[in-house]
Amino acid sequence: MTTITDCPTFIDLKTLADAATPAGDDPFGHDARELDIGAGPCTVKAIALAAGSGASEALDGDTFVLVTKGAVQLTGSNGAVDLAAGESAVIARGTPFSWRAQKPATLIGMSYPLGEGGQARIVKIDNNASLNPSNPPADEVLISEKPSCRSNNHFSSEDGQFSCGVWDSTPYTRKPIFFHHTELMHLLAGEVTFTDAVGTTATFSKGDTLIIEQGAECSWDSRVNVAKIYSTFKPAA
Known about the structure:
Layout: E1 10-12, H1 13-18, E2 33-34, E3 43-49, E4 52-56, E5 62-69, E6 71-76, E7 79-84, E8 88-91, E9 97-101, E10 105-112, E11 122-125, E12 132-134, E13 149-156, E14 162-169, E15 172-178, E16 182-189, E17 191-195, E18 201-205, E19 209-212, E20 217-222, E21 226-233
Antiparallel strand pairs: 1-19, 2-3, 3-10, 4-9, 5-8, 5-10, 6-7, 6-9, 8-11, 12-13, 13-14, 14-21, 15-20, 16-19, 16-21, 17-18
């Protein structure tokens, strides 16, 4: 992978998260390090946990969290969720929860503050979830043959603009498209190369975590099957 942390289109989040250090007593909230990333109304944070435990009254937005190093247990009203590196969950807005880490851990968080609050809960994203057919890229942007795509959406905000789940696809290549939305992705399998409007190129593979900023313009080129966890903000209009 070509490590990119300051490209205005696709950004290597794992490198940024792993550089974070524990600070303060509210690591999921105001003490998390907010990253300078264009993600629409969403905030993207590097969360560093020291070995130990803590609690949060509630977060002010539906918050996707992905463990990039170590492991953490999150406990809410609907029970405990154990997350190892490469695993993720969504903490619904207004959910009181506690956390516990046997060793220091780092996470990436993506929080969506808009819309109405829903049911208080913590939803684990199942990396091995069964997937259903989903829409492939539009014919007009495809350079290759049409791929076969599948997905399983585990969580949606009450207004439907923020969603998190798992997706996979057979290989395909498409032209650069303009991102009206923003997408954080963690690759579970395969490899994909992105090229932006000014020719910057980076290849990400299994285990990498990146985000494509809102307003970016970039292509997609995968020569093998790709699977990913996603956390996406898509404006309603």
